[in-house]
Design a protein that fits this description.
The protein is an all-alpha fold. The protein has 13 helices and 2 strands; from the N terminus they run H-E-E-H-H-H-H-H-H-H-H-H-H-H-H. It has a two-stranded antiparallel sheet with strand order 1-2. Belongs to the binding-protein-dependent transport system permease family. UgpAE subfamily.
């Protein structure tokens, strides 16, 4: 069998087609990363007028700081909670919509809309819903005997930012889970039904294992989302409080760099955050991908 090979009319056309993406990557990804790595080795004044090379002193100072070590555990709880909540809710919604015939497109459109909302707007919406003074959710919880106040309770604040961040990501996960469900051959499910397997058993023994590639991909994406793209949600809801209970790594980078004007420490934190995300991604591909059935 002879394969066709794509040929371009000009020698430089392939490079010209790749150039925009390469330029964007260099300007907005590679260059800021290198600049952050360089700044992490310096100690600068608040106005950036004077800098001193200190080597790895910024990193050593961070790992000796209890507040930074506490933000590591806060980030772990936040990332795990956001990933589990957003993926489980999206899978439930996708499985429900996949069983619909007439109204599938309408429900899909409605469920996708939240993804178009900016993270800060999503945070403000959930802040109003959970506001201890005017929110409807604290009012309902108080009727059930629970007094909600994320301004003073660290656990309430963590629950708030996890719910807000997960709600923002559910639409993205829902689209991929729905596409994965629609690609599963119905003949397999019908054969299991003929053999007497119930809906729950069919889902966990046939449908969910066949969704493992989609689940693995979304797990990687959601971990990266929770580590990097949730600053707007946290800033609009709790601003890292109370008592640093929701002060994740990405928010601490902002607080120390733009509020505290400790530029060297902030750059070192961004380098560590990037290294953690890269390490988690490598671990996921190295070990968890072995359980994925393609």
């Amino acid at each position: 069998m002879q394969t066709k090979r794509m040929t371009f009319p000009g020698r430089w056309l392939p490079y010209a087609l790749l150039a925009p993406q390469v330029i964007v990557t260099l300007i907005f990804f590679i260059w800021p990363s290198l600049q952050a790595l360089y700044m992490s080795l310096l100690r600068e004044d608040a106005f950036g007028l004077n800098s001193t090379f200190v080597g790895l002193a910024n990193f050593a100072r961070l790992f000796a700081d209890d507040t930074y070590l506490d933000s590591l555990s806060v980030t772990a709880v936040f990332a795990i909670g956001t990933t589990l909540l957003s993926m489980s809710a999206a899978l439930l919604l996708a499985a429900t919509v996949n069983r619909m015939l007439r109204s599938r497109n309408a429900y899909t459109t409605l469920l996708v809309w939240p993804y178009a909302i900016a993270p800060a707007i999503a945070g403000v919406l959930w802040w109003f819903l959970f506001n201890p003074s005017i929110g409807i959710v604290p009012y309902a919880l108080e009727m059930l005997g629970y007094r909600w106040n994320h301004r003073t309770s660290g656990s309430d604040a963590m629950m708030l930012v996890i719910i807000a961040a997960a709600w923002k990501q559910i639409a993205y996960n829902f689209l991929f889970f729905l596409a994965g469900l629609q690609s599963i051959p119905q003949s397999l499910i019908e054969a299991a039904a003929i053999d007497g397997a119930g809906p729950v058993k069919r889902f966990w023994t046939i449908v969910f294992p066949l969704l493992s590639p989609t689940t693995f991909f979304l797990m990687v994406v959601n971990v990266v989302y929770a580590m990097f793209d949730t600053f707007g949600v946290i800033h609009a809801t709790t601003q890292g409080g109370p008592s640093q209970a929701t002060n994740t790594l990405v928010y601490k980078v902002y607080a120390d760099g733009f509020v505290g004007l400790n530029l060297g420490s902030s750059a070192a934190q961004s380098v560590i955050l990037m290294a953690i995300v890269v390490l988690l991604t490598v671990v996921q591909f190295r070990f968890i991908e072995r359980r994925v059935n393609y």
